Amino acid sequence: MAKQAVGGGVGASESARSSPGLGSRVSELMLRQREASIFLVAIALAVYFQSSNSAFLSSGNIRSLSEFTYATAIISTGLVMLLICGEIDLSVGQAYGFAPIAMYLADQTLVLPVAIVVGLLATAVIGLINGVATVYLRVPSFIATLGMFFFLGGVNVILTDGFPKTAPSGSFLTEILGGADWSGIAWCLVIVLFMHILLNRTRWGLHTFATGGNPVGASEAGVKTARIKVGNFMLCSALGGFAGLLDALRIGSIDPLAGGPNIMFFAVSAAVIGGTALAGGTGTVIGAFLGTVVLSIMQNGFSLQGVSAYTFNVILGIAILTAMTLNVYVGSLRRSGRG
Amino acid sequence: MAQNRQEDDAAVAPEALRAEGIVKRFGALTALSGVDLHLQQGEVLGLIGDNGAGKSTLIKTITGFHRPDEGQMYVDGKPVTLRSVAQARALGIETVFQDLALISELSVYHNMFLNSELTLKPFPLLNNRKMKERAKQYIDDMGVNIPSIDTQVGRLSGGQRQAIAVARSVYSDARILLLDEPLAAMGAKEGAMILDLVQKLKNEGRVSIILIAHNYSHVFEVCDRVNLLQHGRISYDKPTSESSVEELTELVVAEYRKARTTS
Ligand SMILES: Nc1ncnc2c1ncn2[C@@H]1O[C@H](COP(=O)(O)OP(=O)(O)OP(=O)(O)O)[C@@H](O)[C@H]1O
Ligand SMILES: [Mg+2]
């Protein structure tokens, strides 16, 4: 049987010479196409909302669109790394709330730049705990980060006594870190570009794909899968924290209940719509960013039209199911391309 | 091993690898119960044994993937304790695992350079162009038939995948090569190609090889010496020149008959 398989492979390879190369190009294209098609969906939605309400593309609304997009997009890039590893972080929305609170507390005694670093480090430590629990204590990340989700949600309220705090403002640093108009989306674009390069052009990214695609094989090949996973947990949490800092400094207030499940589920949805499979091994940062843009346009556009949040949820649900079905379809196309 | 040959080896070809009293347990199961094994420099050692005898476990222990519960390893006569595959690699030990350790989602060339990627120094960016070039060259040198260096490994046939795993370790400047059934999925032609490759490496004399195979004629074609792994120990160790397919078959089948009559 084995002989036949190889014999067939060799005999077929003359004709296969063009087709598997083509096959890989097809799957490559499907991914690119996925990004391109989400981009087209975003354009189509923008045209539609603009035609039904000319306020949609006003500079004011574009700014609020950007403010709606950037935090979720930043979080979704971190989640993409984890999802590719075959893991998930349900607590990232709480890290979004935690970083500004940690910064606020540190700012009481330290100078602001240090306080900001403290906020980011605090979330990286959260990611470290998630990673250690998952990788070394072998708690599935879904459960480990669910625990962290409740824990940190409680901590955020306790640390602030449940009351919103006034965020530091008025300095150059607070202006670039969210305070100034457009600074949030600018950070977002820089981070998306950085994460795209990290994922597709560095050893870290390649090892992230390998860890999710074949964990045993990757470690047999000497890839430090534990380190890759823990690192990506830390990265994801810290990006969540950074998004939270940007929002807190923009809004000027630190809300103990900010973030939470809402922003986390939005970010997961964006990643999935963007073509990242929850099973690990595949995913794109650009796709996740475009997925966030589509979600933001829909939410903003529908609310301009006066469509209720419930209707929006129905549409979001359909979008996710469609995206997942497409994922499975692309996956089976790939598998059939093997024969 | 013949007396004068032994002395020659001691003079020019010291031990590349030695394992003493290796014990490996998986919970209640003892897979290896005290393996003693040695590999001379430049030698090709055939390792045979039944399914489940512990051959792969032994390879994975030597290569740092498993940690032995007991026993000591020596590389070039120096005692070593390996904590990871990466550490074994640093000592020049390369492995073709039975499961091949390939990532289906990644391209042929990324698989070939997995964990020894070329980068655009001083930048930490992958040098994909160079990796493609080299991978293509290796594949061509080996004479393997692969549609394209960009193909995802998941799309290749079993034999093609195996060829990539072999190419990956052979072209890595390894000094000690551990090949766990590298011919299992190969057609006759490709199998002969791999055996020729092993022969060529042997003639160059740079590497020492442990080859696991179920086909005894493959073992006799390229190996200097053969070890039989039974009940977690090496129960038979002879130069191939003093052994034969019949003798090995008889040994293994006798074992089987004994087990049948007692049970
Ligand atoms: N990770 C593991 N956990 C538990 N048991 C294991 C593990 N790996 C191997 N074993 C057990 O150890 C024994 C030896 O397995 P091993 O894979 O080394 O056999 P093998 O000689 O390579 O067989 P084959 O010729 O089929 O490849 C088997 O009984 C197997 O079930
Ligand atoms: Mg085996």
Q: What's the arrangement of secondary structure elements?
A:
The complex is a heterodimer of chains A (339) and B (263).
Chain A: H1 2-16, H2 19-52, H3 59-84, H4 92-107, H5 112-135, H6 141-159, E1 165-166, H7 172-179, H8 183-201, H9 203-213, H10 215-220, H11 225-251, E2 253-254, H12 260-273, H13 285-304, H14 309-338
Antiparallel strand pairs in A: 1-2
Chain B: H1 3-12, E1 15-26, E2 29-40, E3 44-48, H2 55-62, E4 70-75, E5 78-80, H3 85-90, E6 93-96, H4 108-112, H5 128-142, H6 158-170, E7 176-180, H7 188-204, E8 208-212, H8 216-222, E9 225-230, E10 233-239, H9 245-262
Parallel strand pairs in B: 3-8, 3-9, 6-7, 7-8
Antiparallel strand pairs in B: 1-2, 1-4, 4-5, 9-10
The complex binds adenosine-5'-triphosphate (ATP) and magnesium ion.
Describe the protein's architecture and organization.
The complex is a heterodimer of chains A (339) and B (263). Chain A is mainly α and 339 residues long. Chain A has one domain (55-308): Orthogonal Bundle (ABC transporter involved in vitamin B12 uptake, BtuC), CATH 1.10.3470. Chain A is 79% helix and 1% strand. Chain A contains 14 helices and 2 strands, in the order ααααααβαααααβααα. Chain A has helices at 2-16, 19-52, 59-84, 92-107, 112-135, 141-159, 172-179, 183-201, 203-213, 215-220, 225-251, 260-273, 285-304, 309-338, and strands spanning 165-166, 253-254. In chain A, α7 (172-179) packs across α11. Chain B is of the alpha/beta class and 263 residues long. Chain B has a domain at 13-100 and 173-262: P-loop containing nucleotide triphosphate hydrolases (Rossmann fold, 3-Layer(aba) Sandwich), CATH 3.40.50.300. Chain B is 38% helix and 25% strand. Chain B has helices spanning 3-12, 55-62, 85-90, 108-112, 128-142, 158-170, 188-204, 216-222, 245-262; strands at 15-26, 29-40, 44-48, 70-75, 78-80, 93-96, 176-180, 208-212, 225-230, 233-239. Chain B has a 6-stranded mixed β-sheet, with helices on both faces. A 4-stranded antiparallel β-sheet of chain B has the order 2-1-4-5, covered by helices on one side. Chain B starts with a helix and ends with a helix. The structure holds adenosine-5'-triphosphate (ATP) and magnesium ion. Magnesium ion binds at residues 55-56, 98, 180 of chain B.
